[in-house]
Write a structure and sequence with these properties.
single chain, mainly alpha, Ribonuclease iii, N-terminal Endonuclease Domain, Chain A, 4 domains, 24 helices, 8 strands, 9% strand, Ribonuclease 3, hydrolase
Length: 470
C-alpha cells in the first residue's frame, strides 16, 4: 500500500529534526570523541557519572562522531544540510554498523526478527489479533456474567466467585490502568501529571473500552441474564456497562493465563492509534513544549492594564481541552489551550505577551490616559487604611488586584464589612491578611476603594506572591 501524504510529511519532519539534532551533536567538545569512557568511569566515584559514561547511548554517540570525523558516514551530511537529493546510490552503499560488536548484534537481530508476513496482520490491520486465553475454564469465566450464575443454588459462594467474571474484571481494571499509565509515561516524557491523568481517563473510560470490546465482537460470547442490544451504532448514553466490564475481564483473564508481558504487547498495538491521536492534539503539544508561566497574567497587566483596559479571559469550550482567549476591549490578543481552564488562561496571557504589536499599541494607549490624583495611604503591618479614596480609579481595581496576586483562586481577595463602624467600612483580605480598609457611602464604593488601596500595598502583595510560589 502506497504511503499517505500525512505519513510522508511525518517522515520528512523526522528527517529535519534528525538533521538538526545531529548538527548539535557534532558541536560537542572534540576531546569527547577520543576519550576512553570506560577508563574515566573506573576512576570516578560518582555513580551517576559512571552510569552516564557507560550508557549505550553515550557510547553510540561517541562511535558515530568518530566515524563521522573520519568521513565514514558521508550520507549524514545530506541529512544535516537538509539536501537529501539523489541519495539512492549512497544509501545502498551505506553501512549502518558502527563496529564489529554492533554489526554482529544487528545481524543477530535481523535473523531473529519475524518476517513481514508473520506480522503482516498486526502491522497493517486494526485491531491487532486478539491473544487467546488458552485455559478453557478461565476463558469460560471471562465470558460469564454474574447474572448467569446467581440462581445456581448447587454452587457455594466460593464456587460462584470462581465461575463469573467479576474478580477477573477487578484484576483487569488494575492491569489496564498500570499498562496504560506506562504507555503514557514513556510516550510523553514532558507531559505533566495533570495532563497524563486526563489522557489516561480517556483511554480507560467506559466509552473507549466499549469500542475496544465491540471491535473484537466480545459481547457475542457473553453469557448473561441481562438483556442488552448494543450495536456499533449505539449512542454513548444508551450503551450498557456490561461491555466495558467484559473487556476488563478479558484483560484480567489474559494476565492470569499468560502474564503481563503478553497483555502489554497486545495493548501497545491496540492503543497505538489512540496514542497517535493524543500526540497530535494541540493540548498535548502545548503542554509538552511549554511550561506554564504562573506570573503571565500579572506581567501582562503590568504592561498594559489600567482601569479602562483590563484583560479578560474567556473560555470557548465546555469540555477539555479548553481554549481560552485573552481579550482586551473586545480584541483577542492571545490564546491558550490546556486541559484545565486555569492553565489555559495563563497560556493565553503568555501568548499575549508575545504579541508585540498589541502590547506596544495597548501600552501606548495606557500612557495617554490621564493620571489620577495620588492616594494617601497609611498602613501598618496588619492593615492599610485609605483616608481619601479616589473613586474614579476604583472601577477596575478588584480585577486588577486579583491579577496582581497571581490570578489564582487561593489568593482571591475577599471583602468584609466591618461591623459597628460609623459608616460603611470594608476590609480587603487575602490569605488571612488585611491588605487595606476603606470607608464610603455604600458597600460597593467602599469595596472598590478598598481594592484600589490594596493595590498600593506593594509589600503585602509581594509577601502573598512569595507565599504562593513557595
Amino acid at each position: 500500500m502506497a504511503p499517505t501524504i500525512s505519513q510522508l510529511e511525518e517522515i520528512d519532519h523526522i528527517m529535519l529534526v534528525l538533521g538538526r539534532k545531529f548538527r548539535e551533536l557534532t558541536k560537542v567538545e572534540d576531546s569527547f570523541k577520543e576519550e576512553d569512557l570506560e577508563e574515566i568511569a573506573k576512576n570516578t566515584i560518582d555513580e551517576q557519572l559512571q552510569d552516564l559514561l557507560r550508557s549505550p547511548r553515550i557510547i553510540l554517540a561517541q562511535k558515530m562522531l568518530q566515524r563521522y570525523a573520519k568521513g565514514k558516514m558521508s550520507l549524514i551530511d545530506n541529512i544535516v544540510d537538509a539536501k537529501m537529493g539523489t541519495y539512492s546510490q549512497n544509501f545502498k552503499k551505506m553501512k549502518f554498523s558502527l563496529g564489529n560488536s554492533m554489526s554482529s548484534s544487528t545481524t543477530q537481530s535481523q535473523s531473529e526478527a519475524p518476517s513481514a508476513s508473520d506480522d503482516e496482520e498486526d502491522s497493517n490491520h486494526w485491531p491487532p489479533k486478539l491473544p487467546k486465553i488458552k485455559d478453557a475454564s478461565l476463558r469460560r469465566q471471562v465470558f460469564t456474567h454474574s447474572s448467569a450464575v446467581q440462581m445456581a443454588e448447587h454452587l457455594t459462594k466460593a464456587e460462584i466467585l470462581q465461575t463469573h467474571n467479576e474478580r477477573l474484571e477487578f484484576k483487569g481494571d488494575s492491569v489496564l490502568d498500570y499498562i496504560v499509565c506506562g504507555m503514557l509515561y514513556e510516550r510523553f516524557p514532558f507531559a505533566d501529571e495533570g495532563l497524563m491523568t486526563v489522557r489516561k481517563s480517556s483511554l480507560v473510560c467506559n466509552s473507549t473500552l466499549w469500542e475496544l470490546a465491540m471491535a473484537y465482537k466480545l459481547p457475542e460470547k457473553l453469557k448473561t441474564q441481562v438483556s442488552f442490544h448494543d450495536t456499533p451504532n449505539t449512542p454513548p448514553h444508551l450503551r450498557t456497562k456490561l461491555i466495558p466490564d467484559l473487556f476488563e475481564a478479558y484483560v484480567g483473564g489474559l494476565a492470569v493465563d499468560q502474564g503481563l508481558e503478553v497483555v502489554e504487547q497486545w495493548l501497545t498495538k491496540l492503543y497505538a492509534p489512540f496514542l497517535d491521536k493524543i500526540a497530535k492534539d494541540k493540548t498535548t503539544k502545548a503542554n509538552q513544549e511549554n511550561e506554564v508561566d504562573r506570573m503571565a497574567k500579572t506581567e501582562l497587566y503590568q504592561k498594559i492594564g489600567s482601569k479602562d483596559q483590563i484583560p479578560e479571559y474567556l473560555t470557548k469550550d465546555v469540555d477539555p481541552p479548553f481554549t481560552v482567549n485573552c481579550v482586551v476591549n473586545g480584541e483577542v490578543i492571545g490564546q491558550g489551550v490546556d486541559h484545565n481552564t486555569k492553565k489555559a488562561g495563563l497560556r493565553a496571557a503568555a501568548d499575549a505577551l508575545k504579541n508585540r504589536d498589541a502590547i506596544e499599541r495597548l501600552s501606548a494607549k495606557r500612557r495617554l490616559e490621564p493620571r489620577s490624583a495620588p492616594v494617601t495611604t497609611d498602613w501598618s503591618e496588619s492593615e492599610v487604611k485609605q483616608e481619601n479614596p479616589v473613586s474614579e480609579d476604583a472601577a477596575g481595581a478588584k480585577q486588577a488586584l486579583y491579577l496582581e496576586l497571581g490570578g489564582v483562586k487561593e489568593a482571591k481577595p475577599t471583602y468584609s464589612v466591618v461591623p459597628d463602624a460609623p459608616a460603611v467600612t470594608v476590609q480587603c483580605i487575602s490569605l488571612g491578611q488585611i491588605l487595606s480598609q476603606a470607608t464610603a457611602s455604600s458597600k460597593r464604593q467602599a469595596t472598590q476603594e478598598a481594592a484600589l488601596s490594596a493595590l498600593k500595598n506593594h509589600e503585602a502583595i509581594k509577601k502573598i506572591r512569595e507565599t504562593l510560589q513557595g
